[in-house]
Amino acid sequence: MRIKFLSVILSFLLMSIAISSCLDSDDNYEYSSDATIRAFGIDTIGKGIYYKFTIDQLKREIYNVDSLPVGSDTIIDKILIDTLSVTGWVTSGLNDTLFNTSDSVDLREPIKLKVHAADGVTVREYTIKVNVHKQDPDSLIWREMAALPASPVSGKQKSVILKGELFVYTSSTTAYRSSLSTPASLQWSLINVELPEGAKLNSIVSFNDQLFITTTSGEAFYSDNGISWTQMDMQGMQMVTFLGGIPEDKIIGNKNILTGIFTKEGANYFCAKDTEEATWRKGEEVIPAGFPLEDIYSTVFTNASGIKQTVIVGNTETTVEETVPWFTMGGPTTMDGLTWTGMSTPTDFSCPAMKNPSIMYYGGLFYMMGGDFNIIRTSRVGIEWNEAATKFRYPTEIKVTPGEKEDDKDTIEYISLFKDKGDYSLAIDTKHYIWIVWNSDGSVWRGRQNKLGFK
Known about the structure:
The chain is mostly beta strands. It has helices at residues 2-25, 73-76, and strands at residues 39-41, 54-56, 61-63, 83-85, 89-92, 97-98, 111-116, 123-129, 140-145, 158-162, 165-169, 174-179, 189-192, 205-207, 210-214, 220-223, 230-231, 238-246, 257-264, 267-274, 281-286, 294-302, 308-315, 326-328, 340-342, 358-362, 365-369, 377-379, 386-387, 396-401, 411-416, 424-428, 434-438, 444-449.
């Protein structure tokens, strides 16, 4: 009995020692070594816009992917950091003073913040950089480039892009070529071309890394290099002009389709073919009245259904009251190039009739140039047309007329440098540069909307 009683007492003693030991360990805290910024944000910009910031934990950099608008320097020179999530505390400056988020900071230049972990040992330094656009993203900027060595002798010329080069055809035997690998400068070289007899320069189209041209006698030719040309088998068709191409579209199963117009017994019809095949498909219905037949310009856009459509404008044989873009149409599974519809607008928002119109789908909108080159027209879907925004205009000179009275405001006019300059040709390269070459003097201009050049 005594032995059992002693064992019980010993057990109680051991438990007491264990409990006492556990109680003593409450004073041994383990502090966190976490010294990371988990969330960061600044006060809203402009009309309550909140910009998201990315935190690169490996490089310890914090930055905004979407740059702030031009002119934001005058806002971020004194702005609050309204979100700063850390476990420990933050210091800044040469003296590592405690950072207070209730004080405004100057973020025009990168700043550094040090995050101190709760353990008092671990420290991480972050660089905060606020990106601001140096250029207005919506502005169309023009620059005059090196002119052609000689003006077009025929009074007509055609500009096209082929495999990263700008070709300007000035006659049936000559053309000028420059690489676009360095678009800031042009180095023109004269080349002797082998255009077929009666070739219509204004009919040249570029599609799928080839050029296509028609002649006054109804023949058609193609070129892989822009210099030598090979006659196409038109299967008895007399070609009027090429319209452009419908690019491959996996959604509806289309391959690259070349489209054009041929004439038969005095009437014009559509024709089209897959560029990998030899057989042409012929339209059965006469093309609609008012459809453009010369100086064709085409562009491609993706519609709301995700299907690619080709849109063209050009000069017509009949007098028109508006410039109408024509769209390729098709069924749910094909776009055959034989069906086109005109987007005529019976409202005040139609595009006025203009000579030598060109169209482009550019930066998410349609734009129409041409006529007297005073106003650029724009449309969201190619139906209602309006004057383009003031930032999207031809190169201009500004004319200021002082007010007649002391309190009158000055009158400011923007006069297009292209106004009434005459015939031209236009091409757009893969870097979104718009190239315009003028017939009258061979001058060359390059334009691009700033945002289409941003990385």
